[in-house]
Amino acid sequence: MSRWQALRARLDESLFPAAPVARAPGPRWERALLVGSLLVLAVFLQLLRVGLSTALDSIWAEDGLVFLQAALLEGTADAILEPYAEYLVLVPRLIAEAAAGVPLADAAAAISVLSATLVAVGGLAVWHGASGHIRDPWLRGALAVVAVLVPVAGLESVASASYVSWYLLFAVFWLLLWRPPTVPGALLGALLIAVTGLSNPGILLLAPIAALRALAVRDRRDLAIVGAFATAAAIQIPILATHDESAEPLWTADVWTAYLQRALDGAAFGEALGGELWAHLGWPFLIAVLVAALAGLAVGFRRADTPG
Question: How many Å is the Cα radius of gyration of the chain?
Fold first, then answer.
């Protein structure tokens, strides 16, 4: 029992610390207005990244050919529960169902706005989920902004229903580390985890964190978080096991170059500028970026305390 208690205490200290209790000043309606205004701003900035006219008049990737078409031609239940690419894609199909309810000429705008809204909600979830680990509000706010305005997002993945779940995966990571201070907050966090898990099997990569969170459960709020993850996984895994549409996997050593250029370089300079720098400066530039990133990690480890 003492070892079990020591393990739980260590998990609480390192992975699942309680968020500081700090009530924001002012009445509740002012806080709600502030949050709502920030969400609207986040949606507008996402649409602006693509260009307002392009975002509101274009349908990308599978949004039209697969999801919207199914919403228009099939029953709601059949369309929502139909797997695509071997797994359930609940969020894109729900967005398509909503877009099918407006005139067809407005479907593109509906998909773009709803997709951007869910990404903005994911940024709000990151703000709350990271509260136990990142106490400085400005630093945590910067993380939430980057979660919404991801530098490495390609043109077709901004304001697109097909890609919303990839943004939400980052929010789920932080929600699994979060100790919700209220039951309503826990239920909303659990809902976001569940719909993400029913939209993207990538959530299974977070299973080790979810397992540790299960070991550290303290109350029903924690159970809601863990239960949502387990439920989504229990539904998604059989779908993956029974739907095999994959082609023969291919391997290329260029994946390392692609990672350094698209992810590391793109995170620092954005997709457009980072791509131009890579095109003109080549490997010396990538090596310099990699050395700078490793140096930053080294400084971070040196300055971190034990839980960090």
Answer: 21
Query: What are the pLDDT digits (tens) for 138-190?
Result: 999 999 999 999 888 877 888 899 999 999 999 999 999 999 999 999 999 99
Q: Where does residue 167 rank: exposed (0-12), middle (13-18), buried (19+ CB within 10 A)?
A: buried
181 within 8 A of 21, measured Cβ to Cβ: yes
Cα–Cα nearest to 15, from 186, 179, 185: 179
Alpha helices in 243-265 (DSSP H): 254-258
| Chain position carrying tokens 């000043």 | 25
**How far apart are the C-alpha atoms of 297 and 76, rounded to whole Å?**
48
pLDDT tens digit string along 231-258?
A: 999 999 999 888 776 667 778 888 888 8
- Which residue matches tokens 């304001």? 159
Distance from the first to the final alpha carbon of the chain = 26
Partners of residue 87 on adjacent β-strands: 84
Q: What is the mean pLDDT of residues 257-262?
A: 90
Specify burial of residue 181 (Cβ count, 10 A radius: 0-12, 13-18, 19+).
middle
Separation CA 238–CA 54 (nearest Å): 38
In contact, 90 and 198? CB cutoff 8 Å = yes
Residues contacting residue 137 through CB under 8 Å, at least 6 positions apart: none
Buried b (16+ CB within 10 A) or exposed e, 266-291: bbebbbeebeebbeeeeeebbeebee
pTM: 0.87
Tokens for 167? 């943004």
Using CA atoms, how far apart are residues 58 and 155, in angstroms rounded to an integer?
11
Give the ranges where the chain is alpha helix by DSSP (H).
2-14, 28-50, 52-57, 62, 69-73, 76-81, 90-100, 107-129, 137-148, 164-177, 183-197, 207-215, 220-242, 254-258, 266-269, 271-281, 283-303
